[in-house]
Write a structure and sequence with these properties.
10 helices, 249 residues, alpha/beta, 41% helix, elongated, 16% strand, two-stranded antiparallel sheet, binds 6-(benzylamino)pyridine-3-carboxamide, 9 strands, 5-stranded parallel sheet, single chain
């Protein structure tokens, strides 16, 4: 996967994504990250890229032309037009499912807005996907772009140490993860659940699955409902859930 990020703050992107796992994946040649500075495509002598909105209103807008020239500098080098994601509070909410879909692309352009956003006309010309990472407003699209790069990158084979874990997780993805424990066996009077020390793999799997159900019911009842609706729990697990419900009432 080759990520191309259009931004006014390229150093923020590059500094934020040189962490151990993503940095190692780049060094291994599993992915590349290029940050293109939109300011390099400013056309006036002051290198400004923003202006007042027609019709008035608060704040400034990023102008169309520098964004378009920066986009052309990337797209012009590619065999076909890439998907272009605009990070904005007005987009479709980012999800694991969307990440899995985007991970299939060979090239991905992420457009980061600043100020009050970008002139609508260039968005109409180049943007294929409007994406938001959640219902809150940030000063720029850089953090959302970094969230997307990180989420998509860990799905690329070879990026994670344990190459089965991303696959297994997506298999389990309708329930929350079960609790996990490492040494010591007792910490400040709190013991590791004995089943995990038993070496009985079937019992351990059953316990973990039940813990996932309990946890999802407590923390994400909306996800558990989806799980039930989609028939993702087997007969024994549905019985376990009914018994949980009875104990609460
Ligand atoms: N929730 C998000 C994305 C960008 C952003 C911006 C229009 C503001 C939050 C376009 C207005 C971009 C998000 C920059 N804030 N701020 O994903």
């Amino acid at each position: 996967m080759n990520f191309h990020i259009l931004t006014l703050f390229p150093e923020m992107i590059m500094n934020g994504l040189n962490t151990s796992i993503i940095g190692r994946a780049v060094n291994k040649g599993l992915l590349s990250i290029e940050a293109v500075n939109i300011r390099d495509y400013a056309f006036n002598k002051h290198q400004s890229v923003d202006d007042y909105p027609y019709g008035g209103g608060a704040g400034m807008l990023m102008q169309a032309e520098p964004v378009y020239l920066a986009y052309e500098a990337i797209a012009g080098k590619l065999a076909k037009k890439p998907r272009v994601v605009y990070l904005s509070p007005q987009g479709e909410t980012f999800s694991q499912k969307m990440a899995e879909e985007l991970a299939k692309e060979e090239e991905l352009v992420l457009l980061c807005g600043h100020y009050e956003g970008i002139d609508e006309r260039v968005l109409e010309e180049i943007v294929t996907d409007y994406v938001s990472i959640g219902d809150y407003v940030l000063t720029g699209g850089e953090l959302p772009a970094m969230v997307m790069v990180d989420t998509i990158s860990r799905l690329i084979p070879g990026v994670l140490h344990n190459d089965v874990s991303a696959e297994f997780e997506s298999f389990q993805d309708h329930l929350l993860e079960y609790p996990q424990y490492s040494r010591p066996e007792e910490w400040r009077g709190k013991k590791v659940p004995s089943v995990l020390l038993s070496g009985h793999h079937a019992n351990i799997e059953k316990w973990r699955r039940e813990q996932s159900i309990i946890r999802t019911k407590e923390r994400r009842p909306d996800l558990l409902q989806k799980c039930v609706d989609n028939g993702l729990l087997d007969k024994r697990e549905m019985k376990f859930l009914r018994e949980l419900d009875e104990n609460i009432e």
